[in-house]
Each structure stands twice: as C-alpha cells, then as structure tokens.
Amino acid sequence: MISVLVAGIIAAYLAISPQLEFRQKVLALALTFSACFLLVYFSYEALIFREINNIYAGLEKFKRKEFKQMSTKFLFRPDPLKRIKDEIYLLAERNQKEIEELKRLQAMRREFLADVSHELKTPIFAAQGFIHTLLDGAMDDERVRDKFLQKAAKSLDGLDTLVQDLITISQLEKGVVQMHKSHFDLNELAQEVFEQLENKANSRNISLHLLNAPEDLFEVLADRGRIKQVLINLIDNAIKYGRENGNIWLSFQDGKKKTLVTVRDDGPGIPKEHLNRIFERFYRIDKSRTRDGGGGGSGLGLAISKHIVEAHKSTIAVFSEVGQGTTLRFKLPKTKL
Ligand code: ADP
C-alpha cells in the first residue's frame, strides 16, 4: 500500500512534467514502486518479523529450559517490541519457577505422606500385636497380661504424642498459628521446665543446672507457652540422648536487644554429617531408637522448635562434636524497659 501510494504521488508529479515520454514515465513509476516495495518489505522484515521470530525462538528455548542461551539482541531496538519480548520472557520465567516450586512441594508432600504412614504404622502394629497375643490366650497368665497391656498402652501413648506433634507441625507450617506474645521472665519459666523434667532426668541420673542466679530477671517478649515447649524439647532431647550420670546446663545471657538462650549437655554429641539435618521432620540419627521403643520421640521435636523460634524472628543453631556434648542456642527479643 505504501509503495503504491508513493509510486502514485511520483507518477502524478511526472504526468505534469512535459520533458518525459510516456514510456519513461511508466518505467519511473515501476522503478519507484519496486524500490519502495523492497525498502518497506525489508524494513518490516528486519524490524518486526525478525523480532517476532526471535521471540518465538526464545519461547522454544524456554520450553527446553535453556534460559542462558536466550538472545536479548535487537537490530533496531524498537521499544514496543522489546517491551513485549521482555514481558513474555519475564512471564515465562516466572511460570517456569512456579512450576518447579509446585513440583518440589508435590515431592515434599509425597515424602511427608510416606514418612507419616511409616511413623504411624510402628506404634499401631506394636499395640495390635500385643492385643492379639493377649486375645490368643496370653491373657490367662496374669503376669504376661499386665506386661503386654502396659506395652500396648505405651505404644498408644507414643501414637498420641506423634499425632499431637503432627497437628502442631502442620499448623505451624501452614502459618495459621498465632504467637501470643507477652512479657515474662525466662528464669521463672526455666524453673517450671526443670520441675516438669526432674523425674525423667533422675531416671538417667542426669543433673539439671540453671547457670543464672534464680533471682536474676530475664524479661522477654515472646509466646510463653510455645517457648516452654521449645525448652522442654531441647532439655528432653539432652536427657534422652545425653549420657547417663551426665549434666545439662541451661543459661540466659542478655544482649543489647535480645537474650541468648543456651541448652548444653555433655552427652555423646552429634556427628558432623547429621548436624544440618536434625531439624528436618522425622530425621533421627539412630533410626532404630523409636522402632524398638527405645525412648526416642516422634522425630518432630526439633522441627517444631525451629518453627516456633523462627516465628519469633530468630534462628536456632546447633554446635556439637562427637564426645564433646551438644549445644543448642536461640535468641528472644528482650522486653524494652
Ligand atoms: P526425636 O523426637 O527423635 O527426639 P528431634 O527432632 O527432637 O526428634 O531430634 C532429632 C534427632 O536429633 C534425634 O533423633 C537425635 O538423634 C538428635 N539429637 C537431638 N538432640 C540431641 C542431643 N542433645 N544430643 C545428641 N543427639 C541429639
């Protein structure tokens, strides 16, 4: 159209020129039309078609996830086209990332489901076994009956703890749990926790030490109930996995804005290769401990503790060396005076 228009204007101009013959006028018209046509065609080709092809080629690479090889070159840098291209690439990259995240979550969900079924199976099978043995005749012997009933009850207690922990962790991971923050004294909370765990510690002849003077005040702003749960988890682990006749030390240290909470034991410690993994759900160093009812927990204690500490905008850290004991630390915001 542009070529016809330009050729038409030139033809009209030449028509009124008396110097040129008719044949020359037709030739001039044809030449103008061809030149215009070629010029327009090749500029469009360079400016638009090539860029669109470029975008298509880029999308093809997206499909094959070859992000790095995508060309960002433009011949004439036409702004609207560049913007379209950038927009498409951005969208495609975002979609690709979302797809990968969804795939990762799906794999995690599958793994979680497999872990949960496995963990549930252990206490259910144990309780089922004891009850069936009783029904099959073991009930007649009073001594065996009591022993088996106690074992079945222990398995069901373990199942109850596991289900409670599963509910807690799923709520924490969903982010639906609100931290009910209040001002309280950590020293007072520590004494409460020690009282609760005293018998358990005594059963392994482990001494619990509070390193700060009982009258010292360590006021923090946090969810008291949840922090109590964290302290119980950490000290309970130190009792379970520490050495018999050992020691556990709990201490608080005031910083500028935060108070450092430290739980240390003189147990066998944690090998380096496990240190990064102990906060994962169901991760246990000694996999056999819960299977044989050897006093291990649900495998969720540290994962729950990590979530609670993170909900207080802090992190939990572990330091340990084999034979040197284990230290776990986290910080809590101090009450502003
Ligand atoms: P569990 O319910 O098995 O205690 P946790 O999440 O509380 O699960 O702990 C994960 C694992 O970390 C434990 O199974 C144990 O192997 C290891 N662990 C935790 N605390 C200690 C500690 N103080 N000393 C040695 N090992 C520990």
TrEMBL record:
Pfam families: HATPase_c, HisKA. GO terms for molecular function: phosphoprotein phosphatase activity; phosphorelay sensor kinase activity. The keyword Kinase applies. It catalyses: ATP + protein L-histidine = ADP + protein N-phospho-L-histidine. One of its GO terms (cellular component) is plasma membrane. InterPro entries: BphY/WalK/GraS-like, HATPase_C_sf, HATPase_dom, His_kinase_dom, HisK_dim/P_dom, HisK_dim/P_sf, Sig_transdc_His_kin-like_C. Keywords: Kinase, Membrane, Phosphoprotein, Transferase, Transmembrane, Transmembrane helix, Two-component regulatory system. PROSITE patterns: HIS_KIN (PS50109). The keyword Phosphoprotein applies. Its EC number is 2.7.13.3. The chain crosses the membrane at residues 26-44. Residues 115-336 form the Histidine kinase domain. One of its GO terms (biological process) is cellular response to phosphate starvation. PANTHER family: PHOSPHATE REGULON SENSOR PROTEIN PHOR. This is histidine kinase. It comes from Rufibacter immobilis. The lineage of its organism: Bacteria, Pseudomonadati, Bacteroidota, Cytophagia, Cytophagales.
